[in-house]
Every structure is written in structure tokens, then in C-alpha cells.
């Protein structure tokens, strides 16, 4: 006898000895079964058998030989088998759930920080440049950014309304402090406010703000809504209701061998796959929709850059506010005539506006936490998250296989339970994943559809449509707001000068005005110098402020600043 034949013979003898020993011990006494049953159910249970008996009253764990289970034990085991399956489901999805929930919280926190930072920039703009109107503007600034946050986090507010409301409230301040200085009655200020949309004192800037807010806020809002739906999907599948057929199959696979004293046995891999694929057949139907959900998240995330990047838009909002004030001041004489025509001439008293009391040192100290390098931007956080999430695109399609391979089934080459006995291998046909594949499942009968899973699929389909509808194309998208902004539509068009963007030649949209960690401060005209670019155009660089702008834009701002200086202090 050669060495190989001897090893095979020894392996067979060991296998038979293990099976026979386990079987004989189970048949001689129920002590091990009693101990395991009491431990598993946490506490003593009355009526447990000391020795195996014939069990004609058993419904699922029926065996030819005497068993250690009673009908009540079988019922308890069935409940435990369902709980065990829910536990392994929750364990298998815990990493995915943590990934989404952790990043959802991080994105929300980052957006809240960006909103506070943008509000600080705008408040400091008023305090440093337009001090006389700063305190009166504070409430409008705070309300505007509160509405931005409410909209981002899903509240039923309309961006068109809060953008217009901000500029409506800004016009009386600009008029009373810069165009026709002096205090006026509340009625007269209200008339000025109401006239803003008719006389357009800020030119196209409110329209530009609305366009930028629409292009950046709506995708970010939809992205957050989609992440919350992802958490809902996982929570739903973690607590899936198992059918009666599935519960019986899980009982037979997990605990029926206990009734025969086989407390250490594990199911054969093929047997386990048939049972778990049958139990999770409806859940497997989520797989193509989950795959498309992650792909759509990835596409939207990749498209959220430039004027579609909420970080860029919020942190540059104060620049547009400044442009709006300068525009109104330059057109002051014309606006004065228009307001007099609509509201009449006011009875003026010298303005007594209190000075700004904004604690700049406190805010500048707090601003240190906002300054991020290129690796810490919101866009890079999204990219890192999507790269991790991409690994779970087929999560629901391979879940049954993962559970059997990692948690439930016996290892290759080991004796295993086939639903009736301990064997060397499972000989029945192994079916695939999904409902259609279960027609030939020898272990579980799958009937009908699961309304809970169908509802989740419908929600995934809906959010996929939203994600794909919010993915910007290489062109301009204008926002046509619905009642709550949730079902708003995006309509494409070409990027123009109103957006403050220019073509790069590759379809990418870039802001002409770039600001890097800039805080508005008093502008020193001696710091201005002209720089000639390689393309022949020229820009003005305000080295004290750390920003660049087109010649026309900065010249307009400088003209306004010169005109404003005598009346600002």
C-alpha cells in the first residue's frame, strides 16, 4: 500500500469515526442538546428530555430515529433560526451601513460649516466695507443662510423665494445709506423693498445668484437625500420578514441536527446556498437597482465641480453681494428718480444707524478651522467616499453566497449536514440568485413578491431618476423651482457672462473671479497693479486681498469703492 492510498484510507476512517461517534453520542443521551438549548435560550426550560424519544409530533425536524427535541423546542428553535439569520444579515451589512451613515453625517457637518463660513464672509463684508448698514443687514444675512441650510437638508423652502427676499431686503439699506442717505419711515422702506423687482437696482446679479444656487444647492440636496435612502434600504433589509417556508428551511438547516445530537454540525455549502438564496430571493432583486444607485451617486459626485460645486458658490457669495451694492450705487441717480416716481419723495432725517459690532477677532480666530488644503475639500471627501462605496455595487446580488461562505456553511472537505443526515457532500441541484432562479429550489418554495422590497425598489428607482436628472452636463443648467424645490426641473443652456464663467476649451466651466482664503477688508488702492496675461487680456490683481478679476469687473468695483469712501465712515 503506497503512502497516498494510506492517507486516503485514514481520512475515510476518520470521517466515518467522526460521524459515527457524533451520531452514537447523540442517540445515547440528550445532555449536550439540553445544555446547548438552555444556553441558547438564556435560562432553564422545563420539559427537556434526558434521553432521545420518538418524535411523531415534530413538524420539521422529522427523523427516522428517536430525537432529543419536543414540539415546543422545535418552535423555539424556529424563532431562534430567524433571529440568527437577521443577526448575520445585520453583521454583513454593518460595514456598508457605517460607511454611508458616517459619511452622511460628515457631509452634513461640512455643509453646515461652509454655510457658517459663507455667512461670516458676508457679515464681515458689511462690517468692513459698509459699516453703517451692517447691523440692519445682519438679520437678512442670517435669514438667507438659514434658508440655504434648511433647503440643503430637505426642508420645504424655495431658493427663488429666499434669494429674492434677500435682495428685496438689501435694496432699502443701500438706498437709505448710499443712494439717498437718511432715515425714512417703515412704510417708505417697505415701498422701496416692493419696488426692487420692478426697477432692478442690482442688475443681473440676483439672477446670477439664483442660477449658481440652483446649480449647486439642488445636486447637494439630492445627494444627501440619496444617502439617507441608502441607509433606509439597509435598515429595511436588515429587518427583513421571512416567510413561513423560509423559517422552516432555516430551522431544518440550523437546528434540526441538534435534535439528533449533532450539535457541532454545519450545513453543506450547496445546501446552505439553496436555503439562503431562497430566503433572500426577493432581496436579491434589489441588486440591479442598488448597482445603478451607486453608479448614479458616482456620476453626480463627479459632476459637482466649478459652478456646480457648493463649496465654490457659497464661499464666493459675498463677492456677488458686493458687486450688487456697487452696481446700485453707480446707478444711484437713475434709481433715485425711479424710487421717487414709485414711492414719492421721503421726509428725511439724518441717519443714526449704529456702527457694526461684529466681533471680527472672534470670527477670524474661528476661521482657522475652515482653511483646508486641496486634499480636504468637500469634492475630495465625496470622491473618497464613492471609491469606498463602489466596492458594494453587487452587495445584494452576492449576499447569500457571502453569508454561507463566511458564516454558515461547513468548510470544504468536512462532513456536513444536508437537511437529513451528516454526509460528505451535498448532491442536490444548487439554484442561482433571484426570484426566477428559485423555481427549481429543492429546499425552499418562493412564492409571489415581497411588498416591502417592492417599495424599496420603487424608492431606489425614484432617487436614481433624481440623481441622473441632477447630474450637470457640460453646459449651463437653470433652475425652475417647484413648490418645495424637491421636484424642480433643470433645463440646459449655454454658459454666458451672467454666470461669471468662461469656457476653458475643454467644456469645463471656470469662474473668472477666484478667491483663495480671502476675507474682505478695506481696499488699498495703492495695492492695485495691472497684470498682462499670455492671451493678451489683462486683469487687476489686488495683492492685499489675494484675488484676481477681469479688468472690467474690478474697475467697476474700484470705481464704486472710490465713490463710496466719503460716505461709508
TrEMBL record:
Function as written in the Swiss-Prot or TrEMBL entry: Cell surface proteoglycan.
Membrane association type: Lipid-anchor; GPI-anchor
Protein localization: Cell membrane
Name of protein: Glypican 5
Keywords of the record: Cell membrane, Glycoprotein, GPI-anchor, Heparan sulfate, Lipoprotein, Membrane, Proteoglycan, Signal
Residues of the signal peptide: 1-24
GO cellular component, one term: cell surface
Similarity comment: family membership: Belongs to the glypican family.
The organism of origin for this protein: Monodon monoceros (Narwhal)
Family annotation (InterPro entries): Glypican, Glypican_CS
GO biological process, one term: cell migration
Amino acid at each position: 500500500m503506497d503512502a497516498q492510498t494510506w492517507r486516503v484510507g485514514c481520512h475515510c476512517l476518520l470521517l466515518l469515526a467522526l460521524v459515527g461517534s457524533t451520531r452514537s453520542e447523540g442517540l445515547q443521551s440528550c445532555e449536550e442538546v439540553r445544555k446547548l438549548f438552555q444556553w441558547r435560550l438564556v435560562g432553564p426550560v422545563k420539559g427537556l428530555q434526558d434521553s432521545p424519544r420518538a418524535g411523531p409530533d415534530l413538524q420539521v425536524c422529522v427523523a427516522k430515529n428517536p430525537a432529543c427535541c419536543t414540539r415546543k423546542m422545535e418552535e423555539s428553535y424556529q424563532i431562534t433560526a430567524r433571529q440568527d439569520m437577521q443577526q448575520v444579515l445585520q453583521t454583513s451589512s454593518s460595514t456598508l451601513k457605517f460607511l454611508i451613515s458616517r459619511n452622511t453625517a460628515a457631509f452634513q457637518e461640512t455643509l453646515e460649516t461652509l454655510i457658517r463660513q459663507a455667512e461670516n464672509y458676508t457679515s464681515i463684508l458689511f462690517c468692513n466695507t459698509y459699516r453703517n448698514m451692517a447691523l440692519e443687514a445682519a438679520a437678512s444675512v442670517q435669514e438667507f443662510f438659514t434658508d440655504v441650510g434648511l433647503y440643503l437638508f430637505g426642508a420645504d423652502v424655495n431658493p427663488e423665494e429666499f434669494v429674492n427676499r434677500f435682495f428685496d431686503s438689501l435694496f432699502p439699506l443701500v438706498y437709505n445709506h448710499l443712494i439717498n442717505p437718511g432715515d425714512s419711515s417703515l412704510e417708505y422702506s417697505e415701498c422701496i423693498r416692493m419696488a426692487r423687482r420692478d426697477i432692478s437696482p442690482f442688475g443681473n446679479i440676483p439672477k446670477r445668484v439664483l442660477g449658481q444656487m440652483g446649480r449647486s444647492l439642488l445636486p447637494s440636496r439630492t445627494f444627501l437625500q440619496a444617502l439617507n435612502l441608502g441607509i433606509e434600504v439597509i435598515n429595511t433589509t436588515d429587518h427583513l420578514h421571512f416567510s413561513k417556508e423560509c423559517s422552516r428551511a432555516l430551522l431544518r438547516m440550523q437546528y434540526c441536527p441538534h435534535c439528533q445530537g449533532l450539535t457541532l454540525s454545519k450545513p453543506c455549502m450547496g445546501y446552505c446556498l439553496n436555503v439562503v438564496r431562497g430566503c433572500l430571493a426577493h432581496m436579491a432583486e434589489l441588486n440591479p437597482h442598488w448597482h445603478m444607485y451607486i453608479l448614479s451617486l458616482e456620476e453626480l459626485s463627479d459632476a459637482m465641480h466649478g459652478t456646480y460645486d457648493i463649496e465654490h458658490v457659497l464661499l464666493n457669495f459675498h463677492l456677488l453681494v458686493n458687486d450688487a451694492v456697487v452696481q446700485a450705487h453707480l446707478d444711484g441717480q437713475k434709481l433715485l428718480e425711479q424710487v421717487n416716481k414709485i414711492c414719492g419723495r421721503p421726509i428725511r432725517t439724518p441717519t443714526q444707524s449704529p456702527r457694526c459690532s461684529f466681533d471680527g477677532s472672534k470670527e477670524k480666530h474661528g476661521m482657522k478651522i475652515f482653511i483646508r488644503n486641496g486634499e480636504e475639500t468637500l469634492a475630495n471627501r465625496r470622491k473618497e467616499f464613492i471609491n469606498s462605496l463602489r466596492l458594494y455595487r453587487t452587495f445584494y446580488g452576492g449576499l447569500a453566497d457571502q453569508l454561507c461562505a463566511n458564516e454558515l456553511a461547513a468548510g470544504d472537505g468536512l462532513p456536513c449536514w444536508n437537511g437529513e443526515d451528516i454526509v460528505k457532500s451535498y448532491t442536490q441541484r444548487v439554484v442561482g440568485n433571484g426570484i426566477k432562479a428559485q423555481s427549481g429550489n429543492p429546499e425552499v418554495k418562493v412564492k409571489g413578491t415581497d411588498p416591502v422590497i417592492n417599495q424599496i425598489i420603487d424608492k431606489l428607482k425614484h432617487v436614481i431618476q433624481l440623481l441622473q436628472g441632477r447630474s450637470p452636463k457640460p453646459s449651463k443648467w437653470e433652475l425652475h423651482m417647484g413648490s418645495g424645490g424637491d421636484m424642480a426641473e433643470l433645463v440646459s443652456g449655454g454658459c454666458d457672462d451672467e454666470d461669471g464663467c468662461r469656457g476653458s476649451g475643454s467644456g469645463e466651466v471656470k469662474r473668472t473671479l477666484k478667491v483663495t482664503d480671502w476675507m474682505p477688508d478695506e481696499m488699498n488702492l495703492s495695492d492695485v497693479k495691472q497684470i498682462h496675461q499670455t492671451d493678451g487680456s489683462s486683469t487687476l490683481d489686488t495683492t492685499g486681498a489675494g484675488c484676481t478679476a477681469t479688468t472690467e469687473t474690478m474697475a467697476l468695483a474700484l470705481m464704486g469703492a472710490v465713490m463710496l469712501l466719503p460716505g461709508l465712515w
